[in-house]
Amino acid sequence: MGKLEGKVAFITGAARGQGRSHAITLAREGADIIAVDVSEQIDTVPYPTARPGDMDETVRAVEALDRRIIAAEADVRDLAALTRIADDGASQLGRIDIVLANAGINSMSPALEMDETTWQTMIDINLTGVWKTIRAAAPHIVAGGRGGSVVITSSLAAMHANANIAHYSAAKAGLVGMMQVLTIELAPQSIRVNTVHPTTVATEMILNDSTYRLFRPDLDSPTRADFEEAARTLNRLPISMTQPEDISNAVLYLVSDDGRYVTGTTHIVDAGGRL
Ligand SMILES: NC(=O)c1ccc[n+]([C@@H]2O[C@H](COP(=O)([O-])OP(=O)(O)OC[C@H]3O[C@@H](n4cnc5c(N)ncnc54)[C@H](O)[C@@H]3O)[C@@H](O)[C@H]2O)c1
Known about the structure:
Number of helices: 8
Number of domains: 2
CATH class of the largest domain: Alpha Beta
Bound molecules: nicotinamide-adenine-dinucleotide
Helix content: 40-55%
Strand content: 5-15%
């Protein structure tokens, strides 16, 4: 018997990366999945966001575990679309118990050179998009009357400063304030709310040339190996990156009964990197 038998999870950014890994991990524990992502390139992002077809692999992997999955295309900036998907998903699968507000972007610029669109797009997706996700899906947890769990994907960048990502750090730190307020608002309904704060995770968000150049300004054409060498110096444990499954395991703890009295916390998975 899985830890999430009979539960339904609503997950944004589920076409690939951590979101896909979360969908597979929760499905393995018995959950059915409502998976949301967007397959059009997001402006201001210097690496490809999810492509058409990425979500198919998430669907295949969840169905291979004999779980149901409803995959839908929506931008987390579109509250009406998220609400439609959450309503349809809850009516087809019967309920929503878990919300993972995971979708996010990265872009880089010194704060004093950043253009307004780059700033605003970041806040719209990484901060307001999380509120819209929870606004659309969490009322179904409340309506179920059985309690549930919300996990917001923040970042180590909420707590540890890196140059060139003032907008990202501001959004990710803002999520902590949002999480704390939601914690006290939703506790009476036995709904727990936590943030998870990964250090570098091996996904397309960081495995791309623009991140390699950011980490290795000393080199003309840095490679992944050059990047990993620099990334290793961020962590206390001798690794360059965590894997998506490491974050999924933390999420599973937070959403299952293993974490049944854990709410209002900032759950850090950083290989000691903030110290
Ligand atoms: N990779 C890292 O090093 C790292 C570290 C800390 C935190 N994070 C956070 O983890 C989360 C997941 O990122 P990842 O590492 O899996 O990267 P990723 O780029 O592989 O996945 C992010 C997913 O979000 C989707 N997305 C982006 N904007 C969207 C929008 N407006 N609407 C709907 N979907 C959208 C993308 O299409 C993509 O599938 C993000 O919130 C990210 O900020 C990542």
